[in-house]
Amino acid sequence: MELRHLRYFVAVAEERSFTRAAERLHIAQPPLSRQIQQLEEDLGVVLIEKGCRPLRLTEAGQFFLDHAKPLLDQLRDLRTMTQRVGKLERTLSVGFVASTLYGQLPEIVRRYRERYPEVEVTLVEMTTVEQLAALKEGRIDVGFGRLKSEDPSIRRILLREERMVVALPPGHRLAQRDAGVRLTELVGENLLLYPKAPRPSFADQVLAVFSETNLTPGRVTELRELQIAIGLVAAGQGVSIVPESVQGMHHGNVVYRRLEDKHAFSPILFSVRHMDRSPELEALLATVYAIYDDLGIAYQKEHL
Ligand code: BEZ
Questions:
Q1: Which terminus of the chain has fewer Cβ atoms in its 10 Å neighbourhood, N or C?
Q2: C-beta 144 within 6 A of ligand 1
Q3: Contacts made by residues 1-5, CB under 8 angstroms, sequence distance 24+
Q4: Measured from the CB, is residue 104 less than 6 Å from ligand 1?
C-alpha cells in the first residue's frame, strides 16, 4: 500500500463519486478506479459497496477512511514543519481576528519584535475559520481567534475568557446609568451582529449567549464587520455586543456597558499546528503571559 492509495481513497470517499474525485485529483477516472481496485486487492477486503449510487463505503471502508485521514493530515503537517525547520531566516506569520487588535495584540507584537528583532513577523487579519485552513496549509504559524473548533491537527491554548460588553449610543436609556446591563434588557433592541460571514463566528457566540440565557433577540441586523457595527451604533441604528477590549476603540458617539450575564464571555485562543514546538512560538506565548502578568489579567498557564 502506497500513500497515493490513501490519497485516492480519501478523495473518492469524501466526494462520494469517482468522477468528482478524479477531477479533484486531476487524474482520469479509469486509473483512479484501478488504484482503488488495487488497494482492495492488497487489503483483501471490499472498501466500497458495489453498484451503489451515491457511492457507499463498507464498514471496513469507513474504518479505513477514519484512520487514513489523520495519517494524511500528519503527512501534510510533517511537510510544512520540515520546510519551516529547514528555513534559514526566522519568520513568524500571525493570523488574528479583527477584535484582538483592540486587545493586547499590538502590545504583544511590539514587545516580541523588540525582543526578537531577527524574526520577521507578518500579521494577517482573518476569521478563526480561515485561520484553521491557513495553519494547515502553512500560510500562518499561529492564529489568535475566538472559536473553539475541534480539529485534531490543530492545538488550541485558551489564553483567557474576555467579558462581552454592549455598545450603545450615548442617548440610549441604558447608557444613562453606570451599572452593567443584562441581556434581557436588550431583547427589544435592534441587535447589530457581526461578522455576517463566514460562519460560525463571533456572531454565533453572541447568539449562543442569548440562547444560553433562554432569550431571543427581537431584531437582528447582520453586518460585515465590527467597524460597521460600531459606526451604526454611533448613528443610533441599534446596539451591538462586542468583546470588552473593543472599548479601546474610542468613538465620541458610542458608550460601553458591561454585560452582567454569566455566559457573556468570549475566549481568546492561541492555535498552532499540533506538531509545532518552534522556539518562535514558545517565545510568543511567553510574551503573551508576560503582558498578562504586567496588566494583572487572569489566565491559566499552558505550555506548547
Ligand atoms: C488579548 O487581548 O488577550 C490578546 C489579543 C491578541 C492575542 C493574544 C491575546
A1: N
A2: yes
A3: 1/39, 1/42, 1/43, 3/72, 3/75, 4/35, 5/35, 5/36, 5/38, 5/39, 5/42
A4: yes
- Indicate if the alpha-carbon torsion angle 238, 243, 244, 250 is positive or negative: negative
Length of the chain: 304
Residue having the nearest C-alpha atom to atom 4 of ligand 1: 104
DSSP state letter for 245: G
Q: Which residues pair with 96 in a beta bridge?
A: 125, 144
Instruction: Report whether residue 243 contacts ligand 1, using a CB cutoff of 6 Å.
Output: no
Q: Please give the grid coordinates belonging to residue 173.
A: 436609556
Q: How far is Cα 68 from Cα 49, in angstroms, rounded to an integer?
A: 18
Cell of 279: 522556539
Tens digit of pLDDT for each residue in 105-163?
999 999 999 999 999 999 999 988 899 999 998 999 999 999 887 888 899 999 999 99
What's the gap in Å between 132 CA and the centre of ligand 1?
17
220 DSSP β-pair partners = 191
- pLDDT value, residue 83: 82
How confident is the model over 211-252, as pLDDT tens digits?
A: 999 999 999 999 999 999 999 999 999 999 999 999 988 888
Closest-lying ligand 1 atom to the alpha carbon of residue 144: 7
Provide, rounded to the nearest whole percent, the portion of the chain with pLDDT above 90: 81
